[in-house]
Amino acid sequence: MRKLGIALSLLILILIVWVESWINIPHPTISDTSITTLKVDTLSSTRFVLKNNFINKKKEGIWELYTEGTPFEIGYSTGKLSQDILQQQERVFIEKISEKSPSKSIGVIRVLNAMYNRHLDNRILPEYCKEMYGISLNASTKYNDFGTPYQRILNYHGIYDIEHSFEDVEVKGNTAFAIKGKKTLDNDVLIGRNFDFSLGKEFDQQKIIHFVKPQEGFKYASISWGGFIGAVSGMNETGLTVSINAVESKFPLAATMPMSLIAREILQYALTVDEAYNIAFTKEAYISESILVSSAFDTTAILIEKTPTGIDSLHMRTDELIVTNHLQTPSLHPAKVYNEENATQYRAIRLTELLAERQHLSVIDIARILRDTKGIENQNIGYGNQKSINTLNLHHSVIFKPLSKEMWVAAHHSQLDEYICYNLDSVFQGAENYPPPISLSITNKHIPKDEFIETTDFKNYATFKALATKYKNWNYELEKLTDNEIQEFIQLNPEAYESYEIIGDYYAKNNNWKTAAEYYQMALSKEVATLKSKKELQEKVSVTVK
């Protein structure tokens, strides 16, 4: 009996040590931390400098961040100069993790998160771990119950991957394409890209364009957010670009190297599309992703598709290559009938139409395509529809011109405001001066805002979004909506299926089944964004007509 008690005590001790090893991942050892003793110089309310690193806030709401040095110095400068954004967006991440967790207990959330990410630091390049540790020294202590700052920063880099495992990829609005040769105005290579990773309005409005001069590899620019060192859209000094696009994935049982860090490694170390493929080939992935890579050196683009079980590539057979949110390579593409009712395939058809409208496309033409809100054959499918190339709810939109090392980033999250132009050669030359330039952009090359942003339709859509949130949570027992309020709401976005579904839900909650069914039928007569949404509407109809 005594031996059994000793064995059980030993087993419990081993279990505690094992769990503790998940919960407390040791941070990397840093030989020189002298940068942490330096103070940030405030040049103005929107300009801050730390050693050779600096951050500017443009009037358009974009932050321009420049960092250089060792991985730790880059990380610490990133965290220190963007500390307010880091801490604000950490709150957003914590809310998302808590929302998705099967338990609301902080202790349980921490253990589950630690178990899932228990080997994450061993999957990531040591230099990236040092960079994340530097960032973590500027994280808030407010969330230490969820893990150490270093462990939390590690975990946040898996949120993008985990998010599209949790959610139906059909609701994602990632769209990218590459064109070259005679398809372009300058016989060039051009890449257009809309990126959808929205964790809310606060997250979307704090965009960082991060220009990095690492000790090893190529200098590069990446469109980013607070506390993030991965790459979802970026270009390096050689004119190689990378963008990653979510593909339907099963929920992974353990984290490996986050896809954004695979893309970062490509951005930092690849010159050619073959080198990009080789980097992706050597990494283990736990979700599926389409990676669009273009190279000024090769004057072409390639689609790299990577899943937990395989990798394949698709080269440009013509002068264009289109990527949305589904696999296309022969060995990985599931044997499914091509169905335009899928939002991802619908967008690919629409993109093909727009690219076929004319030859010799310019950068301004690419912006026009990325801003398109129509459906196939120019149908009005309602603003904000996930089948649109511009869903009016994206994190960022960017255009790359690799041969001239230029990039244009949309200032506003709806992609209708100015596209701000940057030239990587000019940026890195200007960054050597002190004080650093007030802005790194090239003003005379900005793409003007779209006229649609000034229209009544766009203003109506902003009102529609606000009322949609309000009406989804409407307490009909306290107050009824009037017929005028209902009709005014629908007229704000009359071709959107959601307009009718929301009102149908309102009547269903009020037990007015007949009227609810009528509105659900009207919703089904519109272009429903996803097959899942369509099935849900059909089920609502079947319930209300019984």
UniProtKB/TrEMBL annotation:
Peptidase C45 hydrolase domain: residues covered: 186-412
InterPro entries according to UniProt: C45_proenzyme-like (IPR047794), DCD1A/B-like (IPR047803), Peptidase_C45_hydrolase (IPR005079), TPR-like_helical_dom_sf (IPR011990)
Highest taxon of the lineage: Bacteria
Coiled-coil portions: none
Protein name per UniProt: C45 family peptidase
Organism of this sequence: Flammeovirga kamogawensis
Classification of source organism: Bacteria, Pseudomonadati, Bacteroidota, Cytophagia, Cytophagales
